[in-house]
């Protein structure tokens, strides 16, 4: 293992069934290992591991085994650098990568009582040992990568911004990432066996060390920058894989994205070995208005951050905006699939993203039922909760993204029991 990682903060775990739903308090870290000491444009940073971009429970494994995944590594947007350093250090759409050699990685975790133990670290790499990187590939809509001295870094055909993970019972994973957006089929040793990309975008990955297959809907290239694949979930039947965009497409433009409520969720059929077989569906989740989730936030701030599957036609979707966190049960049994329709084409005008009322245009979105709201009761979830996994249909497990400690934040894990109503809805949906 070429890097050592550990959670900076450990969650105090609690599950007391029958009491009101409440998130557990967080404990201070017992041990921590820093990632790097770097200087960005003369400003020192003390970076720590950030491995909370995605979380999944391993199907068929004991309840205490989970897998987490990092994103692309430490990064600072030029237009947000003043919030970190007190003054803006660069301009435009630049993105500073203080550790450009960072390798996105998967972590196997064991959670017992109040302790989280890292059992294994799996840096993602090609079969020829070429490490995956967090630098953007040569996409039309992507940030300009800069190093700590604010010099251009260029692009990488092996670049990924991993944000979500699903673990296969037979070993291996599916990882969703934001750049393409694309999906990575990864084996149990961290080798990327294949990368699925939107049809027509193959040239963006010229020179890739991993096999590229153009199998995803071409409209995915309309994803909003830094709002690609954010949640992924494997159904209990192990044949249905769901993956969601974080936000509505910029379709036809970014202004449309800012006001749209229509997020697309894909369904993929896997073969018995867990490999891609075919596209099975493409649905709409009409996310709530911002004031229903986090009063004072704008619609563009509402993000779908994680999925966890209930069965082959229902998932849990976690939404967040500001300090608001909600989880919805989404049922696709009677939802319209957009595969092969005009709504799946770039020429559609007005676009799906421009529609507020879907009924007049003949689209039935996923049925959405709110089952958890952190603002109800006494829950005080930490900010930047990004990963979520449903465990034994009675509780949710969350993990936070600490942004590699750029602002001194800690990674946290916590467990939240669902109330009786939510449990009943889940069990009813599973029938």
TrEMBL record:
<dbReference type="Pfam" id="PF13449">
    <property type="entry name" value="Phytase-like"/>
</dbReference>
<feature type="signal peptide">
    <location>
        <begin position="1"/>
        <end position="23"/>
    </location>
</feature>
<protein>
    <submittedName>
        <fullName>Esterase-like activity of phytase family protein</fullName>
    </submittedName>
</protein>
<keyword id="KW-0732">Signal</keyword>
<dbReference type="InterPro" id="IPR027372">
    <property type="entry name" value="Phytase-like_dom"/>
</dbReference>
<feature type="domain" description="Phytase-like">
    <location>
        <begin position="49"/>
        <end position="404"/>
    </location>
</feature>
